[in-house]
Design brief:
198 residues, mainly alpha, Four Helix Bundle (Hemerythrin (Met), subunit A), two-stranded antiparallel sheet, 47% helix, globular
Length: 198
């Protein structure tokens, strides 16, 4: 955009490569977010110990969030706020992210998806991938899947070593997400950590 004016503009979302008047502001935004929340910088680990520490943080934060959610009425857990997913939908999506990037991409399971898992809204319909936006599982049902997927990440990062973190995945053939190409293992883990922390 050129020759435009902004007044009282608000941008909420993942920012990468945003240039304003010749300045890439994305690193500035990231630095300010990390100043406000120092644990955010730990979500980009470069070694196995850092991956374990990041997952420790995420488990602790999510345990507190779930505890607060248990105090809410069941209907509130299905309510969308400002067009975002409900709490239950968020749990379902995080399960899906782990299925995609750990179970499928890293561990090679061609069809790791549970019926309650929830892809992002813009994902095209894909054979074998669930997409039931109308499902209204209870908190305990959504948490059973979520806790299983969290435990899978915990097992993986606990056994992670330098060679594995530096390796690339083997493409998984067949329908599903992600596509059947090779990814750096670290990139897959960073995707999970990003989903969990945003």
């Amino acid at each position: 955009m050129r020759g435009v004016g902004f007044l009282n503009t608000r941008i909420d979302g993942e920012i990468d490569g945003l240039t304003v008047n010749g300045v890439d502001v994305a690193p500035l935004v990231q630095a300010e977010l990390e100043r406000r929340e120092p644990d955010l910088a730990k979500m980009r680990p470069t070694d196995p110990d850092g991956a374990r520490a990041a997952w420790d943080i995420l488990e602790r934060l999510w345990a507190g969030t779930v505890e607060r959610a248990r105090a809410l009425p069941a209907a509130a857990l299905h309510e969308s706020v400002d067009g975002e997913w409900s709490f239950i939908e968020t749990l379902r999506h995080l399960s899906f992210a782990t299925e995609c990037w750990l179970l499928r991409a890293i561990l090679g399971d061609p069809n790791p998806y549970a019926a309650l898992s929830l892809p992002w809204d813009g994902m095209p319909d894909t054979d074998g991938v669930p997409r039931d936006r109308a499902a209204r599982p209870s908190l305990d049902e959504a948490l059973a899947l979520r806790l299983d997927r969290q435990a899978a990440v915990r097992r993986y990062v606990d056994a992670l070593d330098d060679a594995t973190l530096a390796a690339d995945t083997v493409p998984v053939e067949g329908p599903g997400w992600p596509e059947p190409v090779s990814f750096p293992v670290r990139e897959c883990l960073l995707t999970i950590f990003n989903e969990e922390s945003t």
